[in-house]
Amino acid sequence: MAKEFHCSDVMQGCDYVVQGKDEDEVMQNAAQHGKAAHGLDDIPADVQQKVRSGIHDSSQCDKQSAKA
Question: Exposed (0-12), middle (13-18) or buried (19+): which is 25, by Cβ within 10 Å?
Answer without folding.
Answer: middle
